[in-house]
Amino acid sequence: MKFAFALVAVSVLALAPAANAADARLKDCVQLSKQVTAALETAQPGSTTDTARQEANTGHNYCGIQMYAYGVAHYTKALQLLGKS
Asked: What is the pTM of this model?
């Protein structure tokens, strides 16, 4: 019984950093989303803006399914297209 309790305690402690890493990536998605939204509001209409909007939508979709690294990459690409990186 003590072994089972110790095993559960070690498992919880091992997974705690992973949860914090996921939160950090979610925070990155939220932060970049706000930056892209602000940049799109001030951007001149054109094909680059349309492409940046598509990248932002793709980033939003990836962040929504917890694929934060892909979401961040697409938000970053949108900012680059808008000249804000």
From this structure: 0.72
What residues have CB less than 8 Å from 12, skipping those under 6 apart? none
Convert the pLDDT of each residue in 38-76 to its tens digit: 999 999 999 999 999 999 999 999 999 999 999 999 999
- Note whether residue 57 is domain-resident: yes
- Domain enclosing residue 37, as ranges: 19-81
- The domain total for the chain is 1
- Do residues 82 and 52 touch, judged by C-beta distance below 8 A? yes
- Give the tokens for residue 23: 């939160």
Residue 17 to residues 5, 12, 22, Cα–Cα distance (Å): 20, 10, 9
CA distance 66 to 59: 11
Domain-located, residue 4: no
Tell me whether residue 53 is in a domain. Answer: yes
46 near 38, Cβ under 8 Å?
A: no
